[in-house]
């Protein structure tokens, strides 16, 4: 019996959220007196996969089938299910990402496993029960959920736990084949078009995000958002009304009806902080709010607040960051 951790890779590197997932999985394995094996998906290098030993992973499985480079739901599900069966994994840990959400529900049916998404803490196993804490109501509340049955799937929310880092520890990487056929790639994308993201940083994976709202007054002022993002190496985002009136493209809209982000730093410029906006950003590690209205609701969710006019504050902030670079 082992714990299986699903590790997402992109451009040869393990995604940061997957380092957290690997750390979560290896700690669960330790609690249960077993080991954690990783199954890697996406484009990876052996050297980077081996470094998952730093997060406590004992062994990494990798299928180098080139069609697995981009996400294909059917093929990924079959691959992970096959790895779970090979490792006799009773617990599967994955990221609460787009891929994790899509694959997790399919895996749950295929493996007849119970599943909890949005999990924010290590499980409690008192009294023979297996209880996880998950975020509910757009992060406004938490629920303790008992995972029943023989097999359990846990989708871990980004930024919920610290990634372990035992420098220099490596894990063996084994090639693994799930004997995938053409039929498993029936839902493969015909073409992957990368969104044109200012600064070249993709929003869902970004560690730093600079976001603008209606307080920016118009698209002609977005150079301030872009300049700050560029100076920080951040992605840009916006509130819904901003994309509704085409000041910015829809793929930059964050919130309940847009993208959910969990960066280390989210800087909100001229955004009021409506509950629907907060739903997509409130798991950011540090939130900085710039708003000229001291009563703006966003200040209640902020770690740092600047009461001021964005057209006064942003140029000073950009200059200060440029000076540090
Ligand atoms: P406003 O509410 O107009 O706020 C602008 C802010 O800028 C104000 O706080 C003002 O004080 C400040 N300001 C103005 N000028 C300046 C200046 N010069 N300097 C500094 N500050 C300034 N919204 C989302 O963002 N994402 C969603 O996913 C989303 N989903 C929704 C789903 C539903 C079903 C509904 C009903 C609404 C949804 N909304 C969503 C809309 C949401 O309710 C708010 O209307 C929206 O977030 C407000 O956007 P805003 O803060 O940019 O604009």
UniProtKB/TrEMBL annotation:
Family designation: Belongs to the ETF alpha-subunit/FixB family.
Recorded source organism is: Hymenobacter terrestris
SUPFAM superfamilies, per database record = Adenine nucleotide alpha hydrolases-like, DHS-like NAD/FAD-binding domain
Whether Disulfide bond counts among this entry's keywords is: no
Limits of the Electron transfer flavoprotein alpha/beta-subunit N-terminal domain: 3-192
Q: Which PANTHER family match?
A: ELECTRON TRANSFER FLAVOPROTEIN ALPHA, ELECTRON TRANSFER FLAVOPROTEIN SUBUNIT ALPHA, MITOCHONDRIAL
Give the UniProt keywords, A-Z: Electron transport, Transport
Q: State whether keyword Ribonucleoprotein applies.
A: no
Q: Which Gene3D superfamilies match?
A: HUPs, TPP-binding domain
Output this protein's name: Electron transfer flavoprotein subunit alpha/FixB family protein
